[in-house]
Amino acid sequence: SQTIHQWPATLVQPVGSPLSLECTVEGTSNPNLYWYRQAAGRGLQLLFYSVGIGQISSEVPQNLSASRPQDRQFILSSKKLLLSDSGFYLCFLLDRLNTEAFFGQGTRLTVV
Amino acid sequence: AQSVTQPDIHITVSEGASLELRCNYSYGATPYLFWYVQSPGQGLQLLLKYFSGDTLVQGIKGFEAEFKRSQSSFNLRKPSVHWSDAAEYFCAVTRAGTALIFGKGTTLSVSS
User: How do B87-94 and B64-68 pair as beta strands?
Assistant: First the structure.
């Protein structure tokens, strides 16, 4: 069965520091992968999605970037964090072949 | 543009009463449809999904949803609500290779 590994679970980073969040999946090939952010008291904001290696679509212009260096790896990065980057970051997998769609456990990021 | 609407921001239901949460979408083709639930401070859990086939979908925790193409709806139902069902519920739609779009969520409160 498919699984998503997302780490760390919580992260506290100073303003201006870099960020790298990694999402890896198992048990599937060529999934669609997504990064979402949920700010406190707000809905889910789609940040990036990827339909394959090296293919990234950005939904919201900001100081974040994403990469997909391998089929089962999706990375969210920032060179310099802002206070407004605080939130709950969720990786999401859509496996069309097996009709599965679910979230990782998420990373709660606090920028101080 | 594709969109998802959850018309009810907040619903209160008595314990033991029936529940229906509404979800309407605007999409150029029949999408994949999902309902997720999020308890406070937690990640998102998949309740049920529709990819194709039978339009009445059974999910976990006694939930079901019905895809109605003519109404562009995918409403979530439960015949008897339990206090533990109090949470936030999100409807989502996508097609292969496109962004997964979430509604803004409906907060369910359960009164005794």
Answer: unpaired
Interface contact flag, B100 A34, Cβ < 8 Å: yes
Count of the separate structural domains present in chain A:
1
Best mutation site among B2, B100, B106 for testing chain A: the one with the most A CBs within 10 Å?
B100
Chain A residues with CB inside 8 Å of B97's CB?
32, 51
Single-letter amino acid, residue A42? R
Q: What is the DSSP letter of A22?
A: E
- Tens-digit pLDDT profile for chain B (112 aa)? 778 999 999 999 999 999 999 999 988 777 889 999 999 888 889 999 998 889 999 999 999 999 999 999 999 999 999 999 999 999 999 876 677 889 999 999 999 8
Handedness of CA B38, B36, A31, A56 (dihedral sign): negative
Q: Which range marks the domain in which residue A34 is found?
A: 3-111
Q: Do B100 and A49 touch (CB under 8 A)?
A: yes
List of domains in chain B: 3-111 (2.60.40.10)
The CATH number covering residue A11 comes to 2.60.40.10
